[in-house]
Amino acid sequence: MDFSSNFIWTKDWKEYKKDRPEIVYFRKKFRKASYLKISANCRYKLYINGIFVQEGPQKGTSESAFLDLADVSDLIDESVENVAAAEVLYYPENEEKRNDSLYYSPFPCLFISDEDGKELDGKSGWKCRYADHINIVGEPFAPAPIHGVERVDSNLKLAGWKYKEYDDSFWDEAYVYDFFEVAKPIAPFDFEERTIPLMQHNFGRFTDVVCVREDGAARKDGEIYENWKAMLDGKGLKRIPANTTEIVEITAGEEMCGYPVLKLAGGANADIKITYAESYGIKQPDIITLVGTRPAPPIKKDRTDYINGELFGPEDSYKVSGYGKAETPEIYEPYLFRTFRFIRFEITTYENELQILSYDYISTGYPLEVKNHPISKNEEYNKIWDISLRTLKRCMHETYVDCPFYEQLQYTMDSRAEILFTYEVSGDDRLARQCMDSFRKTARSDGMIQASAPAEGVNVIPGFSMFYIMMIHDHMKYFHDVELVKRHFTCVDGILRYFDEHLTEKGLVGSVGGILFRHRYWSFIDWCEEWDDTIGVPTAATQGDQSITMESLLYLYGLRCAAELAEFIGRSSVAEEYTDRAEKLADAVKEYCMDTNGLIQDGPGLSFYSTHCQVWAILDDLVSKEQAKENIRKTYRIKGIPQCSVSMSFYLLLAFEKLDMLDTEEFEKMWDPWREMLKNNMTTCVENTTDGRSDCHAWGAMMLYALPRICKAEKNKHEN
User: How far apart are alpha carbons 120 and 46 in whole angstroms?
Assistant: First the structure.
């Protein structure tokens, strides 16, 4: 009996498990094929006769792996021999060396089969080789579990490996796993079909040379400057003489996600360093917090200020082999996409002249089709819409991501807002469905779900679980899908059970989390300057019983959403139970967390206040409309009250809408951070206003939700 499978890898892997990220090349010659079934742990790129076909698979987990179908019929000439080539990236178990959102199994593999399981199946004929000239390392400049930085020493022997003319006689035969080796680790018969479209790939050019650095000075003139401009414009090549160092900074004109493609000729042994950056900034000393010292993000004002600022970001390095020619260039393209607005080149040649034939990029991201684009009479609002839409697009890939430059993780709080923004501009719910399913699959034995998914490791923020419930509720409101709600309801119930089990004698949510690295779970609420020492947790968490009102308010909102969900799927008794819980919790908050001045306290009986508690008290219907308006105004008047940063401003917007305050001074003031973004020449929305870590964070794209309502209010005002 044949126990072989269509799962292949290198034959030596079992002898020594490599404890670092690895790229492995696979090739097979064939005559005929129309469709390929393909997957990999962790990523693949598929080529036919040197032409890129697609990349994947859809991000999965240890319990859920995805399979792609690739149509290759138009790329095959059955009269001659063809070649299929796959470039596979694998991350090890070591959490310090892996990409948490891509890794899902300690078992490396490429799965491949054609439509009839003959010519291109994985059971025979595949050859492979480690791309050991590529060393993938972590990003040293910030906490960022991407681990995609490359140190490349170009290898002449591998030039042209994707093409059928290439001689692979010195490559190894790929090892074919048998059924029993892969049945449990990678569940070969449990592949799920892709649920989202393939990512788009479009050609793009860099728009300009920012400056040339010479002797510490930034220049925007001279021969070097003009030659770089001409090369970027496609008007000629850039020559770098032997024994020369050039430093040049270029721009894409806007924040972009893509694969930069560098084409070279000559220049053997030249060293190229490529830094990818969102903006210019000024370096700062490390930050000391309650949990230790961490790198400080640079100070950022004008993002284009190349005179006073410098570029910070991940840095690829490339050692040139020198085999390239004009007609057959040496090419460097990083495996994972890069996020950039600016790029810094530092190039050093030695005994040979280097020619840069071209430097372009292939942009990538989710194929979002924008169908709704309102236009306001307020031109400033329209400009904020533009940077908001670009922010959303850059944060949509095979999952929603919090930020494309740093973590690239799908978080519940971030994604709930991103999903609503997507519904507003497009009506597309495919990525939203992926998102909700990803979180559902992370349910823990205590009922909690991960704060980010797909991702390995424990990362639980109790309050974030409520944003998952909100996602399901939002989808019900927009799409009325009964089966989707039923599929998620068990997870919803588990989350609510966890909070119910942690109620205090007062009937409030007790200490379900705490400060990052000090407690099992993290009670993050918002990035406020006043909460910097507690890393986004209200200061009230360090006082009294260490419970915070915000977690009671979030639980209350989740209960009411869940009650509507239960009623929607015909579970009236459960709806009544959730409603009863909500009423008791609301009474407890009003009794123990409402001060005599009408403000909701950050912790029961504590004289700590924040805009956040007032906002969620409004959304939870805990105060009258008039009292709510007064509370909001108080938070603006009273010095020292933490304001909603970018992450929570969306919920401030919802509060303004609920209170009919879209035409007030307070509403106008809310947009000041976005006005500052425009003033500082940003093309996307910042993560927060307390530091300059991320210039592109999709929870800041709230104008996509706000502008249709603003335009409606403008129209009504005009008609009246």
Answer: 13
Non-local CB neighbours of 533 within 8 Å, separated by 6+ positions? 289, 290
Kindly state the tokens that stand for 246. Answer: 């050039």
SS3 211: strand
pLDDT at 291 over 80: no
φ and ψ of 225, to 5 deg: -60, -50
DSSP 3-state of 247: strand
Let me know if domain 379-719 sits in CATH 3.40.50.11030. Answer: no
Q: In sequence order, what are the residues at sequence separation of 6 or more whose Cβ sits closer than 8 angstroms to the Cβ of residue 496?
A: 447, 469, 555, 558, 559, 562, 578, 581
Cβ burial of 208 (10 Å; 0-12, 13-18, 19+) is: middle
Contact 397, 199 (CB under 8 A): yes
Segments of the chain assigned to CATH 1.50.10.10: 379-719
- 430, 195 Cβ separation under 8 angstroms: yes
Q: Which amino acid is at 83?
A: V
- Give the C-alpha separation, 698 to 515, whole Å: 24
Instruction: Map residue 57 onto helix, strand or coil.
Output: coil
Using only C-alpha atoms, the chain has a radius of gyration, in whole angstroms, of 27
Q: Which of 516, 401, 491 is nearest to 453 (CA)?
A: 401
Closest CA to 536 of 553, 515, 509, 521: 515
DSSP letter, residue 400: B
- CATH 2.60.120.260 domain residues, the chain: 4-194, 202-278+313-365
How far, in Å, CA of 610 to CA of 131, rounded? Answer: 53
pLDDT in tens, 309-361: 999 999 999 999 999 999 999 999 999 999 999 999 999 999 999 999 999 99
Look up residue 335 and give its two tokens: 């495996």
The predicted model gives 453-482 an average pLDDT of: 95
What pTM, to 2 d.p., does this model score? 0.95
Q: For the residues of 494-546, what is the DSSP string, one character each?
A: HHHHHHHHTB-TTSSB--S--STTTSSS-------GGGTTTTSS-GGGGSTT-
Could you give the angle at the alpha carbon of 515 between the alpha carbons of 655 and 447, nearest 5°?
A: 75
d(CA 375, CA 358): 39
Q: For domain 202-278+313-365, give the CATH superfamily.
A: Galactose-binding domain-like (2.60.120.260)
DSSP one-letter string for 352-392: S-EEEEEEEEEEEE-----------S-HHHHHHHHHHHHHH
Tokens of 499: 């909070």
pLDDT for position 187: 57
**Overall fold of domain 4-194:** Jelly Rolls (2.60.120)
In degrees rounded to 5, what are phi and psi of residue 19? -100, 45
Report the C-alpha gap between 692 and 300 in whole angstroms. Answer: 6
Q: Classify strands 315-319 and 149-153 as parallel, antiparallel or unpaired.
A: parallel
User: Is 88 in contact with 26 (CB distance < 8 Å)?
Assistant: yes
- Express each pLDDT in 702-717 by its tens digit: 999 999 999 988 887 7
Residue 202 CA, chain-centre distance (Å), reads 19
Could you tell me how far CA 348 lies from the centroid of its own chain? 34
Q: How far apart are CA 276 and CA 313, in angstroms?
A: 5
Order of strands across the sheet that contains 22-30: 51-56, 43-48, 82-90, 22-30, 127-130, 172-173
